[in-house]
Amino acid sequence: MPISAEELLSVARKYWRSDHEFDDKPENSPETERFHDTWEQALKKLDEWRALMGELRVELPHLNIGHATATCDPCFKCMVYTNQQPVSSDPQEDEPRSRLWTVVGCLSVLAPVYTVYGVQYDYKGREVRGAARVFFEPLPAQMQALAQVVARKIEARYGAKALPRKIAETRVPLIVHRKEPPETTLFHALFTPEPENLPL
What we know:
Elements: H1 5-12, H2 30-42, H3 46-59, E1 64-67, E2 75-81, E3 85-86, E4 97-108, E5 113-124, E6 127-128, E7 133-135, H4 141-158, E8 161-162, H5 165-168, H6 186-190
Parallel strand pairs: 5-8
Antiparallel strand pairs: 1-2, 2-4, 3-4, 4-5, 5-6, 5-7
């Protein structure tokens, strides 16, 4: 049975506050303590997450698989990314332009849900140019097959359910790091407030 937005908001409220009451206090809020305790338990399963990435390396040997988990975010995270692909061949440019596609798989440590999204980075030479573009379902065609592989692996290993985009975009009255209402969504509370921030 699918989890509703209301149920997920109830879960998220256990870990994120709607005020800044503890910002200048030496002690953590009860929500922060709960978050740290949850991560402490989740880290005992880190080897299982690494095993999932090993399965991805076997199934996608021609691509790069990266570990992107950060315990400030409420999820395990992995990346499948392409090599940089040329996007222009203007002889007047001093440095070639290229593009890198990344498919990101996230398994929440707060609720039995996962998501897969895409990020596009444009480069000039070796430098990223402009802001990264984040894509949610439906993903661009060049990301769809990779996303299906990542989703299948997460579902098979963890039994988690994909969080539908409509529910993921539900606005929540919570503060998740620097993301504050009215911008905060269930996606931010269950996965990451900065989906474009990846260790490339």
